[in-house]
Amino acid sequence: MKEIWLICRESDWEKAKKAIKDAVEIGFTGCIVADEFVERTKKLGRIEVISFNEAPFLKIKSADDQMRAAEISKKTERLFVSFEDWKIIPLENLIAMKGNAKLIAIVNGHEDAEVALTTLEKGADGIAVSGSREELLQYFKLASGGEAGVELRKAKLKEIRPLGVGERVCIDTVSIMEPGEGMLVGNKAGFMFLVASESEESEYVASRPFRVNAGSVNAYVKVGGKTKYLMELKGGDEVEIVRWDGKARQSYVGRVKIERRPLLLIKAEVDGEEGTVILQNAETIKLVTPDGRHVSVSELKVGDEVLVWLGTKSRHFGMEVEEFIIEK
Question: What count of Cα atoms within 13 Å lies in the side-chain half-sphere of residue 121?
Answer without folding.
Answer: 1
